[in-house]
Design a protein that fits this description.
heterodimer; A: 267 residues; alpha/beta; Rossmann fold; four-stranded antiparallel beta sheet; 11 helices; 10 strands; B: 354 residues; mainly alpha; ABC transporter involved in vitamin B12 uptake, BtuC; two-stranded antiparallel ribbon; 2 strands; 69% helix; globular
């Protein structure tokens, strides 16, 4: 099966000539990315290559200095992160950002909030439809917690969970926002080989089940090569290679970026 | 409202409390009634600040300002027009405040609303700041409100203040307002909106990514808190029957902050407990301001302000040894009380069996 990069109009998400400058530093330089609906793609690159900056642009934290980001054909360049989430892009973080004092279930319930209809004053007055919606949210959150195998720990404080479980919880919370595109920032960081393997299956499984498109940043090459259908490689903010996993593994530019010039010469 | 056993028991307890208060003057002295009323008002203030600081994590030091607005608005509403005309000696009072005359319940709500509206104006610039900067900004706004009240002589009677405010804040009124505050804030905080507020407190960026309009919810929390601070101020003004701008300086904010911190940030029952304990303690400690005589050996003359020294020491002790306050972020719930008694029962049963 060969992978074709769609035109920006057909892509679910397309970054067009995106450049991000912070003062004199060019963090992202003229990046073009286009994801077809339903795919799992990856962005790799050495530390400081600008991968997370690109994610921050895609999720609305930064407005790119130049270029545009299209989501389902519409520009989200100037949209704030909460508006972007409402449109259907969810993300996780490299450094886990959970409310550690809140329980597992409560954390996921926060994710459900964006799709709710009631306003806060309905809660203050205690209207019946508020309580009905509250029950729906609790049920939905509980189902998602079960989905990531945290059902037994749903009333534990999120901060007391082991690292791998916190990563899964963050994904569950992202799924609670009912996204159509999921951005995962180093989902396998800090996981042991078995956990990474489980994650691989889990990513494929949620793609089927929730009809998702997934873009991930990852350093664990076993995960990247195992799950991604297409890969963009960044170095110093710029795109140095793109292609299917097998081609990327062979690409001399990529090997140089990761292992240095000496290694390439030695071969 | 959800009608289950817990709701029923809570309603029954509230009603029992109200019934007790209607008969309270039979068991309690006037002084004790005065303290009890002050406790209810302080509890309202503590609950409202806990919503802002404890649950949403906004370090706001503007509470005295909102209280002042509520107190002045309510006082202007319940003073009879003739009395107002007599009292404003520096400059005559202007219309519509000269003609304003409303029943007390409406005055309290109007007091809350004025604080709410002001909070809305303050929120837009101030809530873009975080942490300590927000504290400094809100402290500044509270002082601005105080200066405005001092200088808006045709409305507020300037630095002379307002005297002889009818004491319409009965014990029962204060109790009911405390319950309203508790129920409204508890409903916001112990549902998914509360989860959202706590998420904003713990990790603003994560909250944004979850599609939460962080600024909007901060404004909501701030303004609802300010509304109840206004209500508390209105009740306090009527309770003390005299208000002047000097009364609402930043020390008052710190007093409320003390209730919240002592009770536990993020615990509503803790706030009520904190307000109760500190209100009673402050009165009780008056004893050490009297001249003391230790068996004729050492004689200490009365030192006014001594209780505040003791109080500061107590506060230091809380901060050093129990930073999370009395309750931490836990609550006293019916289920919790039930568990406690059941455990007590099994323990005594076990001891008897031995």
């Amino acid at each position: 099966m060969s992978f074709t990069v769609p035109s920006p109009k057909d892509a679910i998400l397309a970054a067009q000539n995106v450049t991000m400058r912070f003062g004199g530093i060019v963090a992202v330089n003229d990046m073009n990315v286009a994801l077809p609906q339903g795919s799992i793609c990856g962005i790799i690159g050495p530390n400081g290559a600008g991968k997370t900056t690109l994610f921050n642009i895609l999720s609305g934290f930064y407005t790119p200095t130049e270029g545009d980001v299209l989501f389902k054909g519409k520009s989200i360049r100037k949209k704030s992160p909460d508006r972007v989430c409402k449109l259907g892009i969810a993300r996780t973080f490299q450094n886990i950002r959970l409310s550690s004092q809140m329980t597992v279930l409560e954390n996921v319930m926060v994710g459900c909030h964006v799709r709710r209809h009631c306003s806060w004053w309905m809660a203050a007055l205690g209207l019946p439809n508020y309580y009905r919606e509250e029950d729906e949210i609790r049920d939905k959150a509980r189902a998602l917690v079960e989905k990531v195998d945290l059902g037994a720990m749903q009333n534990e404080k999120a901060g007391s969970l082991p690292y791998g479980a916190q990563r899964r919880l963050e994904i569950a919370r992202a799924l609670a926002t009912e996204p159509s595109l999921l951005l995962l920032d180093e989902p396998a960081a800090g996981m042991n080989p078995q956990e990474s393997l489980d994650l691989l299956h889990f990513i494929r499984q949620i793609r089927e089940e929730f009809n998702l498109t997934i873009l991930l940043i990852e350093h664990d090459m076993k995960v990247v090569m195992g799950v991604c259908e297409y890969i963009w490689v960044m170095e110093y903010g710029a795109l140095i290679a793109e292609g299917e996993p097998a081609a990327i593994q062979e690409n001399p530019e990529v090997i140089r970026a990761y292992l240095g010039d000496d290694f390439v010469k030695g071969h | 409202m959800r009608f289950n056993r817990t709701t029923f028991i809570c309603l029954a307890l509230m009603a029992a409390g109200a019934l007790f208060l209607t008969q309270a003057d039979m068991f309690l002295s006037n002084y004790q009634l005065y303290i009890l009323k002050l406790f209810f008002i302080n509890a309202i203030l503590a609950l409202s600040l806990n919503l802002i600081y404890g649950f949403t994590g906004m370090f706001s030091l503007g509470h005295a300002g909102f209280m002042a607005l509520g107190a002045y608005m309510a006082a202007l509403c319940i003073l009879p027009p003739e009395q107002k005309e007599m009292m404003w000696i520096l400059e005559p009072i202007i219309w519509p405040f000269s003609e304003l005359f409303t029943p007390f319940w409406l005055a309290v709500i109007l007091g809350g609303l004025v604080a709410f509206v002001f909070a809305l104006f303050i929120a837009v610039p101030a809530l873009r700041l975080g942490d300590d900067y927000l504290g400094i900004a809100t402290l500044g706004f509270a002082e601005i409100i105080r200066v405005l009240l001092t200088n808006a002589t045709p409305i507020t009677n300037g630095s002379l203040g307002i005297k002889g405010i009818p004491d319409s804040a009965t014990l029962l009124t204060c109790y009911v307002w405390m319950l309203i505050t508790l129920v409204v804030i508890a409903r916001i905080v112990y549902g998914n909106f509360g989860n959202v507020l706590r998420c904003i407190r713990d990790n603003e960026i994560a909250a944004q990514v979850m599609g939460i309009n962080v600024f909007g919810y901060k404004v909501m929390s701030f303004c609802v808190g300010a509304f109840f601070a206004g209500v508390g101020g209105a009740l306090l003004g009527s309770h003390l029957s005299t208000i002047d701008p000097k009364m609402f300086n930043f020390l008052l904010t710190f007093q409320v902050l003390m209730y919240v911190v002592a009770g536990g940030l993020g615990s509503l029952t803790g706030s009520i407990l904190g307000a109760g304990i500190i209100t009673v303690l402050l009165e009780w400690l008056r004893a050490i301001e009297e001249p003391m005589d230790f068996f004729g050996l050492v004689e200490i003359p009365g030192i006014p302000g001594m209780r505040m020294v003791v109080f500061s020491v107590l506060l230091l002790a809380i901060i050093l040894y129990r930073r999370e306050g009395i309750m931490g972020s836990r609550e006293i719930t019916l289920a919790g009380i039930g568990r406690f008694f059941r455990r007590l029962a099994t323990r005594t049963a076990g001891r008897e069996a031995q």
